[in-house]
Design goal:
heterodimer, A: about 375 residues, alpha/beta, Rossmann fold, 2 domains, 7-stranded mixed sheet, 12 helices, B: about 300 residues, mainly alpha, ABC transporter involved in vitamin B12 uptake, BtuC, two-stranded antiparallel ribbon, 11 helices, about 75% helix, about 5% strand
């Protein structure tokens, strides 16, 4: 214990001397957390690169904080998409003195970590987590830049109603599928449609003929499914087998390349939503793609969101003239920034105001963007 | 009416698949009184092998019917080899052990096969190459696709062949003799080990056929697909009377129809109190009823417990 303390003191002293020797410029630490190992590592790296681009771009403008020159430093941590690891690295960032955090990717990681940031009053802006619960825990420090599942569900419901008044819904009884469909139902009712049937399945089923047949009896104009691609693919095939030629719609769980691969020709015409704008529709998309491409290569999905998350945090600090969370948090809440992803403002929960949701349709074996619902730029889909 | 008809059609197709798999359970049980929990994984192997082989052949430009036959042959070969190997390695050394030991071994084999498949094929879902252009036939308001008709036809032919094998050939007679009494059959000159191996081989070949049909019908295959399927097929075998071949047929078809009707009507019957996610309740509720009132299954004969 004693030696540990001694080492800590020495290290502390050294880093202090190093800092004071090198730096006439002060630094502010921004945390960035995403899965950098495991199957989602490529998405995590996307987030890291996006945030890094933002920090480096701002540093190059020689920013000042309260009149003093300042440099921002990105501290990147790996949560491995794991809730437990997420809390460990969150605590590490707190201990290391991070003043704000860009992250995490997965809702399952963002939610447990958000408690630690909230307890230590450190603002967190997630570029990717969409579970409603993340911003609805009553924490003042939790923000996000993507439309949440509730906004997505409502957009889906609106769009479904606009295709046909009689809507049938199926969910897979997972937190995601059920939550999405609950919001779809609200969206359908709000836009004057009628939910004629609600059926259920599981996230392990492959045979849906029975539930689809009972849907067929209710003569719906459109079917909305809340679940993932391994179920959506056989479902759309069986819809065809049963001779039901009606639009098939789902959320981001099926708006994947995998869905098209698994469903084959039956995927043609299916509609899937995904939060956010496609990169070529983002106001700053072309410029960002070029700047990002020069340095890091291809954008996966989240880089522009991570970029804007870092920008939003740093600009709030600059406006407040302080990197102290207590001082700049109110500024963060008042954010009005034209980001790469579009105009950014938060509602009282910390959700993106009018978060846009984009609908894609399978055309010639590829997802093609057809319409954006919500978002401050777009008009609501009540054509 | 057309909805009811469609639900019956759905149920019969699902049931044919259950029946094919249930036969494997029931044949092994008939001879060894062993519940071969690894049987579902053999079906999974059949599906994965046929998807992979078919994918390669179609990419090479082999005509579709030939490619399907070759894929089936490959699946049968791999499944039979695995089935016989599993019997030789995992079950034969335990043949005279207490009953629980081979049962637990069977569960172990199932886990091993699943993990092997996960290592070989990965965790992702594989898609069945879209070689069967779907044609849909309407009949009195119910639709049936060519793939579904193929399933019923193949299942019927396979099961007919099995009945012929069991009742009309020397091997079949040896199987029935071994099922009645292993020791006595052995004393009468039946090579019991060979007969048991042959039973596993036949059951695994049926599993390979089922695997191919399931992959073709649902369009996807996955290393984990055998587990739930195996459980359902096992229930079907018990429902019909485990150890009894026509029983497995009847049990499979019944389970399919009950599930389908259950899922289709449970919401309306209970006024929305129970939804279609409770579809399995029907199947297992009926299973429990059968087990209470006819413990040996619908077609099973009352046999004294030999264990």
């Amino acid at each position: 214990m004693k030696t540990k303390l001694l080492i800590a003191l020495m290290v502390g002293a050294m880093s202090w001397t190093a800092a004071s020797a090198a730096a006439t410029v002060e630094t502010v630490k921004i945390g960035c957390v995403a899965p950098l190992t495991g199957p989602q590592a490529h998405l995590g790296k996307d987030i890291e690169n996006g945030a890094r681009l933002a920090v480096d771009t701002i540093n190059a403008t020689k920013p000042t904080l309260g009149g003093k020159p300042i440099q921002f430093v990105l501290q990147v941590e790996d949560d491995a998409a794991d809730p437990k690891t997420a809390t460990v690295v969150a605590q590490k960032l707190v201990d290391d003195g991070a003043k704000g955090v860009v992250g995490h990717l997965n809702s399952g990681a963002s939610i447990p970590a958000s408690r630690i940031y909230a307890d230590n009053d450190i603002p967190q802006v997630s570029p990717a987590s969409t579970a409603v619960a993340y911003t609805h825990q009553g924490f003042k420090t939790a923000y996000r830049l993507m439309a949440n599942d509730s906004q997505q569900g409502r957009a889906l419901g609106q769009y479904a109603t606009h295709l046909g008044k009689r809507v049938a819904v199926v969910d897979d009884r997972t937190a995601y599928g059920q939550g999405l469909i609950d919001e779809v139902v609200k969206g359908v009712k709000a836009s004057g449609g009628e939910v004629v049937a609600r059926e259920y399945t599981t996230d392990k089923s492959t045979d849906f003929t029975a539930i689809l047949t009972s849907l067929k009896a209710k003569k719906p104009d459109v079917v909305v499914f809340g679940g993932m691609d391994p179920q959506a693919a056989p479902m759309v095939r069986q819809l065809q087998t049963l001779g039901m030629k009606i639009p098939f719609i789902g959320g981001d769980g099926m708006q994947t390349a995998e869905f098209i691969k698994l469903a084959g020709p039956a995927a043609e015409g299916a509609i899937g939503s995904s939060p956010g704008l496609p990169i070529d529709k983002m106001p700053g998309g072309a410029d960002f793609t070029q700047r990002f491409g020069e340095r890091f290569g291809k954008i996966q999905i989240y880089a522009p969101f991570a970029h804007d998350a870092a920008v939003v945090l740093i600009q709030a600090m600059l406006r407040a003239g302080s990197a102290e969370p207590g001082k700049y948090l109110p500024e963060l809440a008042r954010t009005k920034v034209d980001g790469v992803i579009g105009p950014i403002a938060f509602d009282d929960k910390g959700d993106l105001k009018d978060g846009p949701v984009t609908l894609y349709q399978v055309k010639d074996g590829k997802w093609a963007a057809v319409e954006t619902v919500g978002g401050p730029a777009a008009t609501p889909a009540t054509k | 009416m057309d909805v009811l008809l469609q639900q019956l059609v759905n149920g019969l197709i699902l049931g044919s698949l259950y029946a094919l798999v249930a036969l494997g359970y029931t044949m092994v049980y008939g001879i060894l009184e062993l519940i071969n929990f690894a049987h579902g994984e053999i079906v999974m192997l059949g599906a994965l092998v046929s998807v992979s082989v078919l994918g390669v052949l179609v990419a090479m430009g082999v005509p579709v019917p030939l490619a399907l036959l070759l894929a089936l042959a490959a699946a049968v070969l791999v499944c039979v080899a695995t089935g016989v190997l599993v019997e030789r390695i995992a079950y034969r050394p335990l043949r005279n052990a207490p009953r629980l030991a081979p049962l637990i071994t069977a569960i172990g084999v199932s886990i091993v096969l699943q993990n092997l498949a996960m290592i070989l094929w990965g965790r992702q879902y594989l898609s069945f190459p879209p070689v069967l252009e779907p044609h849909i036939y309407a009949w009195h308001g119910a639709s049936v696709s060519n793939v579904q008709l193929l399933i019923v036809a193949v299942a019927a032919v396979t099961m007919g062949a099995l009945l012929l094998l069991v009742h009309r050939t020397r091997l079949g007679r040896a199987m029935r003799a071994t099922a009645q009494n292993r020791e006595v059959a052995g004393l009468m000159g039946v090579d019991v080990n060979r007969v048991i191996a042959a039973t596993f081989a036949v059951g695994s070949a049926l599993a390979a056929v089922a695997g191919l049909l399931i992959a073709a019908y649902y369009g996807i295959a996955h290393y984990n697909m055998g587990f739930l399927l195996g459980l359902k097929a096992f229930s079907a075998a018990v429902l019909g009377g485990i150890g009894n071949i026509p029983g497995a047929l009847l049990g499979g078809l019944l389970l399919g129809v009950i599930e389908s009707l259950g899922a289709g009507y449970i919401g309306d019957l209970t006024g929305g109190f129970l939804g279609s996610h409770y579809q399995d309740i029907f199947a297992f509720f009926i299973l429990i009823l059968v087990l209470i009132f006819r413990p040996s299954g619908l077609l099973g004969e009352r046999v004294s417990d030999r264990a």
